[in-house]
Amino acid sequence: MARASPIERLFVLGLDGVPYSFLQRGMASGRLPHLRELAGRAYMKRIASELPAVSSVAWTSFVTGSDPATHGIFGFVDRIAETGDLFIPTARNRRAAPVWVRLSDRGRPAVSINVPGAYPPEAVRGCVVAGFLCPSLDRATVRPDVAAKLQEIGYVVDVEAALGKSEDKGPFLAALHKALAGRRDLALWLLEREPWDFFQLHIMETDRLHHFLWDAADDENHPQHAAFWEFYRAVDALAGELIHRVTGKARWMILSDHGFARSRCEVNVNALLRDLGFLQYTPAEAMNLDPVADASLAFSLLPGRVFINRAGRERRGCVRAAEAESLMSDIADALAETRYPATGEAVFDRIVRAHEVYPGLLRDLACDLIAVGRDGFDLRAGFRTTEVFSSPSQAGTHTSGDAFVLAGEAILRGDEATLRDVGRRMMEMMLP
Fold first, then answer.
1. What range does the domain containing 324 cover?
2. Among positive and negative, which fits the CA dihedral 354, 356, 358, 360?
3. CB 119 within 8 A of CB 136
4. How far apart are CA 93 and CA 96, in angstroms?
5. Is the peptide bond before 144 cis (omega within 30 degrees of 0)?
6. Which tens digits make up the pLDDT trace of 274-286?
7. For the domain that residue 78 is a member of, what is the CATH number?
8. 7, 25, 223, 257: which has the fewest C-beta neighbours closer than 10 Å?
C-alpha cells in the first residue's frame, strides 16, 4: 500500500473480541450490512492479538504502540516477585503513555471512552472515561461535566459477569443493550460538543456476549440465536452511524483485539505443571503464591504464562541462572507433548519464549514462557485443584490469531501483522 500522510484526526472504534472470520461470515450473510458497506470501501485484514491474548494487555499494546515489556502490562493478573502477592494491573502500572496522553502533552485534544486499561482515568486535554476494572461510575472520569452526563444517561461501566452465568439470559442481554446504548449516547454527545484530534470508543459488550453466548451464533436451534444477532444488528448500526458522522472530518479505523472460539475444555496449567513434575503445591484458595513449594521449578499465571522459579528473582526461587535455559526447553517440550485425553490431540498450539516476542526493557518482569492453547482450550491457573482438565464454565474463549482491522483512507501500510503493529503505525502517523 502507498505510504499515507500524517494523520491530523483519527476516530477508532474498538469491538472487543470480534473475530475476523466471524465478521466475514456475518457480512457475507447480510446480517452486518453497515460493516459490509464500510469494508467495501476500506482496507480490511486479519491480524494477530498480543501475547497473551487478553484485553488489558492487547489494548494497552495498541494504544501505546509497544510491547508488554515496554508498557508493563503482562496479564490480567500479575505477581510481585519479591513477596509472592498477586494483583490486578491498572493504568497505575502502565509504563508507556497511551496515545491520548501523548497528544494531550502536545496540546492536542483527545477522547478515550471505555478502553481497557484506562483506569484510573488521566486528566488530559479532552477526556478519558474508564471502563473495564473501573470499580464505580463516580470514578470513571475526572471531568465533572462528563461525570454528570454519565449519571444522566444511566451509563454502565461494565456488564456484570454474574448475569451471563445465569441460566436465564434475558437480564444479561438487556444489560448488554443498555450498556451499548450508553456508549452510543456518550459518544454522540462528545462528538457534538468536544474538540478532538483522537477519539476512541470501545465496545466491551461484544466480548461479554461471546463468553456466555458464543454457542448461539451459528446454531439456529439455540434459544438465544435470534437475540445474539439482534444485539449484533445494534453493533452494526452503531458502527455505520459513527463512521458516517466522522467521514470527511477525520480518518477512521475499526478493529478488535483477539478472536473467539467455542470453549471445549478448561486446562489448569499449574495442575499440568504439577503432573509433569515441575511444580509442587497443596490445593488451597490463595490470592498469592504461598501454595508454591520451595522446591518448585516453575508456576503459571493465567493465561498460559509460565515463570521459572528463579533464584534471586522469585521470593523462594531455587533455579540457578545456569539451569534456567535447559529447564525452559524441558518445560516447553513437555507442554508441547501434552494431549487432551478425550481426543488425543495437542492442547497447545505453540510455546513461545517471552524474550523472543517482547523487545522492551522490562523483560525481566515478564514470564519466561507463554503457552498458547489451541482454539477452544481455555487456559487457567490457580491452586484450588489438582485436576488438569475440566468442563468449560463459559461458552466461548479467546483465540490469539483471528482479530481484525478495518481502516479507511490509507492509514496502514498493509504489512501490519499484529495489533501491536497497528498501534505502532497509528502512533507514527498521529505523532510524527
1. 265-390
2. positive
3. no
4. 9
5. no
6. 999 999 999 998 8
7. 3.40.720.10
8. 223
